Amino acid sequence: MMVEESRDELFHAYYKRWITVYKEGAIRSVTMDKYLMTHQWLVKLAPNLKLCEVTRISYQQLLNDYAAVHERQTTMDFHHQLKGAILDAVDEGLIQRDPTRKAIIKGKTPRDKKPKYLNQFELQTMLKNLELKQEINWDWFILLLAKTGMRFSEALAITPNDFDFAHQTLSVSKTWNYKGDGGFLPTKNQSSIRKIQLDWQTVIRFSQLLEELPEDKPIFVRTEDKIYNSTVNSVLTRLCKKAKVPNISVHGLRHTHASLLLFAGVSIASVARRLGHASMTTTQKTYLHIIQELENKDIDLVMRSLSGLN
Alpha-carbon distance 228 to 222, whole Å? Predict the structure, then answer.
């Protein structure tokens, strides 16, 4: 009887219950927000769909409706989040067969995206336009991101205590909850806890800048202020426009940092450690286009070396 009642439960109600049981407290709040957003779309697109009515056709129609207003990758994420709950429902006997099998993922044509990174000349040109005043401003923040490749939330959490000027390092051990009510949060993963080596110019500049600041307080955040990613993106857009270089996002500074290191011949393992990636696989996937370009250069180098052998 309970199984029959559960089979007659609305799909979006089951999904909300599944999120609460399996995801609440087990995933980061940012990831949880994505599951909750998927639930909201489920309510909007299929308010009356019962669990027992989730068939391959009804599920495909749901994906099609979602894809009509979303790009393909976003639709893929929507599909994966629903699939976890559906497979559990199949295991419990609430759905007879897996309706996600052979699902076709569609989506709108992607919009033109911003360039992901600048080349070395473009970055140097942009950095020359920074207004590095005696007080902390967002230009200093942009300089630090370009020099370290830190994530946005990691850089917001940096305090004077995190700098070790004697050893030219910067410790990353926390993030700032800029999407919530502020305050320190753990890093994205254990691998994100790291020490980043700094060049001597950055050491000198920041050692002078931080002399009179509270050692345990975030450098770039006044704790009572709300920080928005868009605020810093606007500053960066202005700088890129002034320098007449491609307009990148704040996260694009991280990509720029990694790209310059790879083109300079730094190993993937070292770049992965510097960025705080959980594995080299993440680095390889993210920067595959650069790695392939470098491999092509390596082939040319090998061929030139071999052609000199008689």
Answer: 13
- The three-state secondary structure class of 169 is strand
The beta-carbon contacts of 188-192 under 8 Å, at least 24 apart in sequence, are: 188/28, 188/151, 188/276, 189/276, 189/278, 190/278, 191/273, 191/276, 191/277, 191/278, 191/279, 192/151, 192/154, 192/276
Across the chain, mean pLDDT equals 90
- Is residue 283 within 8 A of residue 259, CB to CB? The reply is no
Neighbours of 104 (CB within 10 A): 10
pLDDT, tens digit, 9 for 90 and up, residues 123-158 = 999 999 999 988 999 999 999 999 999 999 999 999
pTM of the model: 0.68
Alpha helices in the chain (DSSP H): 2-7, 11-22, 29-45, 56-67, 72-91, 120-127, 138-148, 152-156, 200-209, 229-243, 250-263, 268-275, 280-286, 288-307
- Contact of 19 with 37, CB cutoff 8 Å: no
Better pLDDT: 224 or 110:
110
Condensed to tens digits (0 to 9), the pLDDT of residues 160-209 reads 999 999 999 999 999 999 988 889 999 988 999 999 999 999 999 999 99
Tell me the sheet residues that pair with 112: none
Query: What is the four-CA torsion angle of 247, 289, 150, 205, rounded to 10 degrees?
Result: -70
Torsion angles phi and psi, residue 293, rounded to 5 = -65, -40
Per the CB < 8 A criterion, the answer to whether 75 and 105 are in contact is yes
Nearest to 132, CA basis, from 207, 200, 206, 196? 206
Partners of residue 163 on adjacent β-strands: 170
Between 7 and 177, the higher pLDDT residue:
177
